[in-house]
Each structure stands twice: as structure tokens, then as C-alpha cells.
Amino acid sequence: MNVEQLSAFRRELHRNPEPAFVEIGTAARIEQAIEGLPVSVLTGADAQHLAPVVNYPSASTLDEWTDRAVASGVPPKRAEYFRRNGTALVVDIAGNRPGPRWGLRVDIDALPMRESTDPTHFPVPNGFASTNGAMHACGHDANTTMGVGLLHRLSDHDFPGSLRVLFQPAEEGVRGAQTMLDAGVADDIDRMLAVHVAGDTPVGAVVGSFTGGMATRKLKVDFTGKASHAAGTPEAGRNALLAAAMAALAIMAIPRFGSVDTRLNVGTLVAGDGVNIVPSTATMTCEARATVDDTVDELVDRVRSIVEGSALAQGVSVSLALMGQSATVCPDDELVDLIIAAAKAQDAVDAVERTRSLAGSDDANLLIRHVQQRGGWGAYLMVGAASPGPHHSATFDVDERAIPLGIDILETLIRAAR
Ligand SMILES: [Zn+2]
Ligand SMILES: [Zn+2]
Asked: Residue 276's domain is classified under what CATH number?
């Protein structure tokens, strides 16, 4: 794929963004873009396990996005396939001599937010702004294009080892990586990479790896009580709203940790049936984060005690489910050295930062940690993409020169491996 073809593919994805787990047209477009390459492709249950996913999109939501994908030109049969079987793709390409088994995670989902319609926002005058209410406001259109472009580059097989590209759904909300881990697709990888564009970094600047960051758990808590007349028989009711409200306050009152940075947030609380009814249901979502992996589990234990205690106090029942999760990232020095050497070999790279601490959470870290726990190496490469607006804002946009540059670095890295 030449530079124009890479931009055209990225713009096609940008025009048709799809949020977590409904990347139906995106998956079909990836499949189309690698058609004819000497690769093998895993999809469906071979690429991800969807059964444990909490709050998976409803049938009507899936139908809606399938219709949109078809209306945007995706073959109906392929749209239907990804709608039924999930949107992850795992693509393998083999080198022609022995060497490491590389893994590369690229995320494919967009955000449920509207894109700017301002005529100075580059995609608007250039005719590829989103029209469907979602937006590629984190650059996953560019990340995905790097994955596709790299497979094209390496289709001459002239490299040691092999490469597996993991096209991962649902990075936003940190829900997708675990579904792919559950399918075992990272079990045999020796060197696990993730690549992401950095909007706040100039083109030509590269970060060898993210480091640190926060482990996170996203939780959904359902309280179930009993409705009754709020005036006639209030004592017969069991108040789910009160249990949830007590829990919300107590969760925010979990103490700080002396040696670890932590965060807690109760993000949503939806409860009750009507103004004169003792509320019988309440659903709360909350998240915990910590700079140490074990601490986030301790926070979840405390949240569990609180919701169970609040439920007991109000005589309601409660269930707690894990919606999403991620870990911290600790890149391997040897691999960061190789990435930096590959970056410095590019004429277009003029600034190399060894590592940068990750401000948020990304579930590629689960894949990296999985490979590291099995004796492999991992790192998370960032490629400067000079966006006019911050990540997750309506004016986010990628300088497309970042795409071939990211591919060049990855290609150099993999071809030079021993
Ligand atoms: Zn994001
Ligand atoms: Zn992102």
C-alpha cells in the first residue's frame, strides 16, 4: 500500500466509525484490505470469546450498526457474519527463516461522540468526517491502518519469525483485550507490541514505550429490592435506591493509599420506578484505578464489601459484574532498545523519547502482561500524530504522515530481529 492508499483506507474507516463491539463494517473492511495477501485469518470464536462480556450490545443495536455498515457499502453477508460472530480478527504472516513470534495489537473501535462539523476541522473540507454519530476521536483508524499496512509490507516473507496482528475491538472501556486473551490468541507470542498514535506529540517524534499507567476495573452493580406503595405500605418495600446511594457514598469514602496512587469513581446510578413507589431496582457503575496491579484488586474487594453491606442494611439483593479491566504496563528494556534503534533508523524521525508514563488505561497492557508472564517481552510504541484537538475531543485528527512512519518503524524492527 502506498501513502495514498494508506490515507484512503484510514479515511474510509474515519468516515464510518463504529463503537465498542459493533465494529462490523470495520472488521469487513480490514478483511477486504488484506484479501489476497499470503496470511491466515482467525475470526469469530477463534479470535475472541464473547460469552463473558457484560453489557454486550443488544440485538437491536447490533442490527442498527449492521444496517449502517451495509448502507456504507460493506457486503451484506460479511456484515452479517461479523454481527453474529464478533468483530475481532487475528491475522498471521510467516517469515522465511526462524525468529521470534511477534504480536501487534491495534485497536479498531471508535467513540460514541459527535465529530466537529467546523469547516476548519480537516476531515470536514476533505469529505471524510463521520456521518453516523460516532467518531474516531482516539486515532484507532490510524492504528488499524498501520496494522493493515504492515501486513502488506511483510507479504514478501523476507523476515525472521512470524507476525500476528491482533485487530482488537472495544479498547475504549477496556473490554476487548480480555475477550481475545480468553480465545488464547496471545498464548504463543514471544514479543508483544502495541502501537498507538499520540495526538499531543509532533509528527517525527516517537516514544519507545508507554510505562506505568493505572490498572483499572470497571464494575456494574445491580441492586434488586421490592416495590411497595410509598404511603400505604412503605415497610413492605425493600429500597434498592437507598442501598445504592449508601454504597455510592461509602465507595467514594474508601481511604487513599499511603504508597500507591488510586482513583475511585461512581459514574452512573439509575434507580426507581415512580415517585410514589419504593424503588425496587438500582444499577450503578463505578471504576477503581491504581498504579499497582494488586491494589486495584484490593479496591474491588472493598467495593464488594460495601455493596454487600449496603444491600444487607436495606434487605435487598446485589450482584457485581466486571465490565472492563486493564493492568499497568512495564516494558522490557531489551525490546525498548530495539524499538528505539528502529525509530532512529528512519530519516523522518527527529525526536525519540525512551518511555513516557501512561496517563490513562489501555487494555493492550493485559496482552503485554500475559506474554511477559510466559517469559516473553512486551512494549507499547507511540507515534507522534500532531492532532489539533486532544484525544476524545470533537476536533481530534491525525496527521496522516504518522501512518507510514509507524509502519516503517515496525517493519524495520521486525526485519532486523534475530
Ligand atoms: Zn481512547
Ligand atoms: Zn486509543
From this structure: 3.30.70.360
Mean pLDDT of 262-267: 96
For residue 94, the surrounding DSSP H or E stretch is strand 89-94
User: Do 268 and 385 belong together in one domain?
Assistant: no
The count of C-alpha atoms lying within 13 angstroms of the C-alpha of 315, restricted to the half-sphere facing its C-beta, is 9
- Domain end among 325, 359, 374: 325
Assign residue 18 the CATH number of its domain: 3.40.630.10
**Which residues have their alpha-adjacent CB atom under 5 A from ion ligand 1?**
138
Residue 286 CA to residue 274 CA, distance in Å, equals 24
Ion ligand 2 residues within 5 Å by Cβ: 138
- Of the ligands numbered here, which is closest to the C-alpha atom of 382? 2
Judgement on whether residues 119 and 234 belong to the same structural domain of the protein: no
- Ligand 1 centroid, distance to 98 Cα (angstroms): 36
Q: Is the pLDDT of residue 361 over 90?
A: no
The radius of gyration of the chain's CA atoms, rounded to the nearest angstrom, is 23
- Domain extent for 17: 3-212+328-415
What is the pLDDT, as a whole number, of residue 165? 98
Q: How confident is the model at residue 359 (pLDDT cuts 50, 70, 90)?
A: confident
Per the confidence metrics, is the pTM higher than 0.90? yes
- Share the mean pLDDT of the chain: 97
- 175 CA from centroid of ligand 1 (Å): 12
> What's the domain count of the chain?
2
> What digits encode the pLDDT tens for the residues 21-74?
999 999 999 999 999 999 999 999 999 999 999 999 999 999 999 999 999 999
H/E segment holding residue 327 = none
Q: How far is the CA of 303 from the centre of ligand 2 (A)?
A: 28
Q: DSSP strand E in 146-230: where? A: 160-168, 191-198, 205-211, 215-224
Residues 196 and 229 in one domain: no
Domain termination residue (choose one: 269, 290, 325): 325
| Residues 35 and 183 reside in one and the same domain | yes
- Asked if 366 contacts 380 with a C-beta cutoff of 8 angstroms, the reply is no
Question: Which ligand minimizes its atom distance to the CA of 196?
Answer: 2
How far away, in angstroms, is 30 Cα from ligand 1 center?
20
Cα 140 to ligand 1 centre (Å): 8
